[in-house]
């Protein structure tokens, strides 16, 4: 399903013709400007939709895949507990904080990997999707870490476009019922356009509002249905870092990229900063493991000498939850049993 250059030229030409029609047919200058700006919503909507559908999902980093020897070892063991021992040993070197409901390490049999936090196997796509939100039949793709921003922008632009159509069609819709329109077949188009645009507006508004709430709370749809399980228990706010950071995790640091459907989310999708890091003594308190203070803090356990450097991001490195655990003295100063939780209150 490739759109040729010829196809793009036709779409662009149609857009320009519509723009010309708006400019010529509207007398009021202010209204003219509003119409021209609103016309831009359509290409943005198509662009975001395109990106949501065709963005390929990133694979979990190779560190999460089992090595050949580990696979052999795992196959040799038939008892669940022995297999868990092996998985626990591998997970020790990885920034994994979530567990299954029974407290076991999350492992995907199908992809033969330790599931990174927030990663789930999609039975439709038949692969593990990083920060999986849901499998969306409307885009025939999973919505996850790689395309969540595009999905949000698609909802936002479609909603604005539908509202624009509803608002501009309203006067003709009223004329339809007051017999103010010429008696042609075209007047039924006004009726159809108004009903379809207003109904889409209602459904898009509810979906968009729900996903805005999820972004603010740093939850995926799956996590909203079932709270993630950490080693100390379930916590629906386990990944929340406060409104500003939650928003930036999806939309990025640079404001100029927020409204454009290009990838600008922070992180690598495999490791997520969590304010609960200090509650999990089995895990490294930093995904890099490069700070000696972290090693001391974690009872002398040796973390990987080759850290997951590619998994670093501005958000991860600047998140106080990592630096809070850098020194035990900081914890003493605060005198809190869970200093990570004091970093930033939930918005
Ligand atoms: Zn999988
Ligand atoms: Zn899927």
From TrEMBL:
Chain segments annotated as transmembrane: 148-167, 188-210
The question of whether NADP is a record keyword is answered with: no
Topology versus the membrane: Multi-pass membrane protein
GO annotation terms (biological process): protein targeting to membrane; synaptic vesicle maturation
Q: Catalyzes what? A: L-cysteinyl-[protein] + hexadecanoyl-CoA = S-hexadecanoyl-L-cysteinyl-[protein] + CoA
Q: What family does the database annotate?
A: Belongs to the DHHC palmitoyltransferase family.
Q: What is this protein called?
A: Palmitoyltransferase
What is the species listed in this Swiss-Prot or TrEMBL entry? Lates japonicus
């Amino acid at each position: 399903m490739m759109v040729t250059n010829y196809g793009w030229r036709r779409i662009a030409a149609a857009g320009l013709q519509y723009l010309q029609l708006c400019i010529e047919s509207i007398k009021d200058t202010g209204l003219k400007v509003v119409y021209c700006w609103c016309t831009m919503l359509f290409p943005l909507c198509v662009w975001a939709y395109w990106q949501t559908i065709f963005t390929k999902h990133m694979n979990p980093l190779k560190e999460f895949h089992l090595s050949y020897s580990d696979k052999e070892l795992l196959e040799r063991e038939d008892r669940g507990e022995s297999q868990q021992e092996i998985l626990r040993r591998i997970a020790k070197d990885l920034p994994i904080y979530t567990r299954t409901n029974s407290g076991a390490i999350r492992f995907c049999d199908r992809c033969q990997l330790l599931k990174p936090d927030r990663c789930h196997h999609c039975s439709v796509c038949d692969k593990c999707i990083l920060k999986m939100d849901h499998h969306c039949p409307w885009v025939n793709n999973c919505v996850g870490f790689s395309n969540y921003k595009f999905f949000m922008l698609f909802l936002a632009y479609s909603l604005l476009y539908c509202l624009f159509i509803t608002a501009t069609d309203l006067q003709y819709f009223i004329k339809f019922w007051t017999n103010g329109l010429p008696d042609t077949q075209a007047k039924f188009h006004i009726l159809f356009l108004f009903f379809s645009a207003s109904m889409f507006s209602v459904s898009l508004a509810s979906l968009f509002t729900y996903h805005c709430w999820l972004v603010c709370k740093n939850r995926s749809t799956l996590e909203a249905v079932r709270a993630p399980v950490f080693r100390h228990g379930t916590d629906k706010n386990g990944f929340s870092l406060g409104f500003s950071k939650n928003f930036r995790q999806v939309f990025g640091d640079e404001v100029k990229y927020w409204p454009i459907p290009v990838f600008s989310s922070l992180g690598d999708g495999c490791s997520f900063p969590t304010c609960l890091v200090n509650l999990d003594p089995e895990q490294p308190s930093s995904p890099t493991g490069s700070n000696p203070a972290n090693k001391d803090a974690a009872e002398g356990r040796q973390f990987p000498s080759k850290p997951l450097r590619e998994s670093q991001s501005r958000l991860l490195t600047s998140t106080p939850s990592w630096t809070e655990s850098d020194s035990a003295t900081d914890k003493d100063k605060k005198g809190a049993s869970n200093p990570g939780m004091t970093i930033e209150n939930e918005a």
